[in-house]
Amino acid sequence: MGKVYEFLDDRLRAIRQDIILQQPPPSECIPILEPIVRFYAFAAYRHCEDKGDQFDPVLNHGSLLSCLKCLMIMYDSEDHVSEDRSEMEALYLIINLGHTEALIRSLTLPKHIRWEL
């Protein structure tokens, strides 16, 4: 799976760079970023015990966190209704356990999203 991960990571990084350069509206970015977040989260789970050279958990975590932060900014910038927002908010909270900003964010979310967490 190492070669597949490397290829997908490279392509997803290019997509993220295009999003930064082109700055499309959040309504177009959110459906692109949510599957990317899932990929990095799954890769972290799948490779958590790997000792090989082909997977770098630090780089994967950085990419995951970067995508999640971007998503959180986009969710906040407009009230985009995404069926997957509560999933992404929960993942953001789990990944940032121990960080006050994530806790404060979760407490200030609209009630309908908090109830789903």
From TrEMBL:
Pfam families: SAC3_GANP. It comes from the Eukaryota. InterPro entries: SAC3/GANP/THP3, SAC3/GANP/THP3_conserved. Residues 3-114 form the SAC3/GANP/THP3 conserved domain. This is SAC3/GANP/THP3 conserved domain-containing protein.
